[in-house]
Amino acid sequence: MQVKLFNRQGQLVGPFDVPRVVKSDAQWRAQLTPAQFLVARGKGTERPFCGTLLDNKREGVYACVCCGLPLFASRAKFHSGTRWPSFFEPVADENVITHEDHAHGMIRTEILCARCDAHLGHVFDDGPAPTGQRHCVNSESLVFTDEKDLAKLADPAAEGDR
Prior knowledge:
By secondary structure, the protein is mostly beta strands. The protein has helices spanning 25-31, 34-41, and strands at 2-6, 12-17, 60-64, 70-73, 77-78, 86-87, 96-101, 108-113, 119-124, 134-137, 142-146. It is built from 2 helices and 11 strands. The protein has a 6-stranded antiparallel beta sheet with strand order 5-6-10-9-8-7. Strands 4-3-11 form a 3-stranded antiparallel beta sheet, with no helix packed on it. A hairpin with a 5-residue loop joins strand 8 and strand 9. It is globular, with a radius of gyration of 15 Å. The relative contact order is 0.26.
């Protein structure tokens, strides 16, 4: 699969071919907190207004808690009033995949990390311009990196980029 990654200069580059990240439930449980495992691997939802990143106003990037793939940038974050962090677009279309979700008697579009299939939340068509989309994401599925520290997200697959 092809995704965009950060290089050592803290720049989003690519796309690059990277392998999928596949682990057993035991391996994911060892890596994640129980709440992160429930949401990201078990397709759960954190309680409304409780996510640690809901009110985060810092500039930076939100990456997958499971595999570190960059998913959303603070420049695309907006206050949706829906009780979870919301973004009008992913940092790169390649980095987020969608799946039709029929759970709970509804038909919704689930959003997943493209590299490891972590459950992020759902995308709706009621967001602001320029996309009209609202990616409603669980804080438990994300880890935040400040803009000044984006080089820490450098992926070895992007090292050949200059």
